[in-house]
Write a structure and sequence with these properties.
By secondary structure, the protein is an alpha+beta fold. The protein is built from four helices and ten strands. It has a domain of 125 residues. Helices cover 32% and strands 31% of the residues.
């Protein structure tokens, strides 16, 4: 009997009885892997209501279940390098590492809830139709950016919490390094501009 993948129809092999021309269905490793990846990134559409709050459940890439909440409304506003570990917010940096470890060790058990910035949506204004203006319109007032930021809360082990902290810290140090390098290059260009030959032409012509 031939083993055929039920999804992609690929021939996977044969099983006894070999003289039987019938086919049996299964799933190949590639199709199983693809389904797992799709399942890991698929957001559950049904909202989960907790009291007056409304949040959404999501499956993360590692298979853990997370809870999406609106920052500033349903959960605390966080920066890219802020993480809430079991109710306490930390700015993940080298200076806060010891305090973070102390807090982590004070938590009983090996798991804790962790909340971090997940994503942001920005609403764009509807473009106005062009046409002849009957009269000059006053300039439109600038409106604050209409955006919504979401946080994700997931329960992880202490080892995973440490990894999240180190990852945020590493990214912050990379950004600081990039900004410092850009500032240094700008200052070098400015100093070179001050010493460019020909800047004293006006003084020479006056003599």
């Amino acid at each position: 009997m031939k083993i055929i993948c039920a999804k992609c129809k690929k021939l996977m092999g044969e099983i006894e009885p070999f003289d039987d021309s019938k086919e049996t269905r299964a799933k190949c490793a590639d199709c199983v892997r693809q389904e797992e990846e799709e399942r890991a990134t698929r957001m559950v559409a049904a909202p989960i209501k907790r009291g007056s709050r409304e949040s959404k459940k999501i499956i993360l890439d590692n298979g853990a279940e997370g809870l999406i909440t609106i920052a500033g409304k349903e959960s605390e506003s966080l920066s890219l390098w802020d993480v809430i570990f079991d109710g306490r917010k930390f700015f993940c940096s080298e200076e806060t590492t010891k305090e973070f470890e102390k807090h982590l060790e004070s938590i009983p058990g090996d798991e804790l809830p962790v909340t971090f910035l997940h994503s942001m949506t920005v609403k764009l204004d509807t473009p106005k139709r062009r046409g002849k203006k009957k009269q000059e319109e006053p300039p439109a007032e600038k409106k604050p950016s209409d955006s919504t930021t979401y946080n994700c809360t997931v329960r992880v082990s202490k080892a995973a919490a440490r990894q999240i902290f180190r990852d945020k810290q590493s990214r912050m140090e990379q950004v600081v390094g990039i900004l410092a390098d850009a500032a240094w290059k700008a200052s070098v260009k400015e100093r070179m501009r001050e010493h460019v030959p020909g800047t004293a032409k006006a003084d020479n012509s006056a003599t």
